[in-house]
Amino acid sequence: MWKLLKIELFKIFKRPRTYIAFGAIAAVVFLIQIALKFDGKSYIDLLLSNLSGSFEFSDDFKNKLLNGYLICFVILNTLLIQMPLLVALISGDSIAGEANMGTLRLSLTKPISRMQYMIVKFAASIIYTLALLIFMAALALVGSMLIFGTNDMVVLRSEGIEQIKSFDVLWRYFAAFGFAAVALTTVSALAFLLSVFSENSIGPIIATMSIVIVFTILSEMNIPIYDETVKPYLFTSHMVAWKGFFYVQADAEGTTINGSMENFPAVMRSLGILIIYIFLFFGTAVWVFKKKDILT
Amino acid sequence: MNKIIEVTNLSKSFRDIKAVDNLSFTVEAGQVYGFLGQNGAGKSTTIRMLLTLITPTSGEIEIFGLKLSKHRKEILRQVGAIIERPDLYKYLTALENLRIFATMSGVKISEKQLMDQLEMVGLAKRAHSKVKEFSQGMKQRLGIATALVHDPALIILDEPTNGLDPQGIADIRNLILLLCRERGKTLLISSHLLSEIEMIADSMIIIDKGKKLVEGKVNELFDPAETIVELKTTDDAATYLKLEQSPLKKYMHGKRNDCLLLKLHRDEVPSVMKELVQMDVNVISLHSKHSLEDYFLSLTTGSTHVEVAKN
């Protein structure tokens, strides 16, 4: 199995298209970092403008705000919405691309079971997704920490602002990246499932993105009837739960409690639902593929 | 003789279309077995069932004496195949492609063995070239190398000469004969080109519309000395009438396109030529066609000759 996985990874990382995603992430991260390096104050003013009616912020406070942790948060907010497309580029191509190239039929005449084949293909897609996420984490978190330094992190919420102590931030990022890995694996599993039905890569990639976009719109819509009936069942509603790691509890005096999370069970529930989706998508993909006649 | 492949009452339907219909045949060890039929006859569907790419609707396949449905992995370890086109990873080199399929075949092969394999198909000098730079013939040869890389006992080649130039076809033919005669491999080769199968196959089956028409040893299925002559004259209708009233009537075999067909022994061709000249027939051309081709056409197109002859 390990040898087959090595082959899959070799094939993925030998393709020029694989690096489009890495290039796109690097470009977005650098553009945000450069913009905030030279015009960060304006951005902070804009962020605080909704709160300035009731709060007065000193320049010193504003300067402290603009640190690597906040920049990384901004980047994550932007990129985690776009990354499903980059993940779908590879996962959607996984089976459909082989069918399109004609290599699927040759591969399946080899003494490996279809179950093994699917496990290896999906594992390779997950590894690619993780590589993409680690790459983004390195650029967004480590890069921003080096460029902007570290300080207490301020999270802006509709009710006001929360300040997280500098020493209490890093573990939240690790947890958030871990959660994001599961969320993106869900998208990867969906693209993988759609890939089984198609004989060209474009179809599954477009279908995955269409589903993610429609579900995201439904998740974001403030229509009461959807809140109970639709939203809890959409995987996109749970993909943004990584932000929960940055929402902290406060004591009676309004001071944030170090190491706390506002709603840990809700984050775990979202994680569980995403994992169920992964198994559902992958299980269906295997079931369909095992029965499929290879006619390409 | 050991039976390498034994297919019994094999059928496959796609919704209401029966692609393979109750097909049975046997391939013996050390043979080149020709699998013949026109396009759409069911050859590729049958081969895909032999390679577990398609699940049969009914019937049984045994390879190396084992049931394919139960011993898939053990069987496929000893099988090498090309199905239709030799599609490979175009963005990888020849050597990388070969290494990938060798690994997938479950065997450990050294770099030297891989290079030897490329040498055998004449691609050693292009080992590090990407497949997208290859011609169709080179891809076909690399495809054969991937099918042979794990030294299988049974080799299944579906239309192996498709898209090749005459030299490429000759190279593949020689390779097939080498594999069978010198290395003792069993080969099942599908084709719609009878001339190719005739030159290399020991036994063959002809199928049409998914059904077996005939199966047997090539040299028993037709008389190699018998031939079909295509006769083209300045006035076919007049020639037809002249022939009907002459001793050559016994050779008349119908019409195909704008030619009259005569079926006769090869030795009789010169005397028939003389006779035609004496009958004052203006011959434009006279081609001797192989009898196997005619045999094939007569089986797969049924009454074509008779119907045309009536015109």
- The count of helical stretches of chain A stands at 12
- Please report the distance between the alpha carbons of the first and last residues of chain A: 25 Å
Count of folded domains of chain B: 2
Radius of gyration of chain A: 21 Å
Which properties best describe this structure?
heterodimer; A: 296 residues; mainly alpha; 12 helices; 2 strands; 70% helix; B: 311 residues; alpha/beta; Rossmann fold; Alpha-Beta Plaits; 2 domains; 4-stranded antiparallel beta sheet; 14 strands; globular; disordered C terminus
Structure summarized in a few sentences:
The complex is a heterodimer of chains A (296) and B (311). Chain A is mostly helical.
Description:
The complex is a heterodimer of chains A (296) and B (311). Chain A has 296 residues and is mostly helical. Chain A has one domain (2-291). In chain A, 70% of the residues lie in helices and 3% in strands. Chain A contains twelve helices and two strands; from the N terminus they run αααααααββααααα. Chain A has helices at 2-14, 18-48, 59-65, 68-91, 96-101, 103-107, 114-148, 170-196, 202-220, 224-229, 235-239, 264-291, and strands at 153-157, 160-164. Chain A has a two-stranded antiparallel ribbon with strand order 1-2. In chain A, helix 1 (2-14) crosses helix 7 and helix 7 (114-148) packs antiparallel against helix 8 (170-196). In chain B, strand 4 (58-63) and strand 5 form a beta hairpin. Chain B has helices at residues 43-50, 72-76, 94-104, 111-120, 136-148, 166-181, 194-200, 218-221, 236-244, 269-278, 291-300, 304-310, and strands at residues 3-14, 17-28, 32-36, 58-63, 66-67, 79-82, 154-158, 186-191, 203-208, 211-217, 226-233, 252-256, 259-265, 283-290. Helix content of chain B is 35%, strand content 30%. Mean pLDDT of chain B is 83; it is low at 303-311. Chain B is an alpha/beta fold and 311 residues long. Chain B folds into two domains: 3-220, 3-Layer(aba) Sandwich (Rossmann fold), CATH 3.40.50; 226-310, Alpha-Beta Plaits. The longest helix of chain B has 16 residues, at 166-181. In chain B, helix 3 (94-104) crosses helix 4 (111-120) and helix 3 runs parallel beside helix 5 (136-148). Classes of the chains: A mainly alpha (296), B alpha/beta (311). The A-B interface holds A 3-4, 7, 10-11, 14-16, 101-103, 105-113, 291, 293-295 and B 14, 48, 51-55, 72-74, 76-77, 79, 81-85, 87-92, 96, 100-101, 103-106, 146.
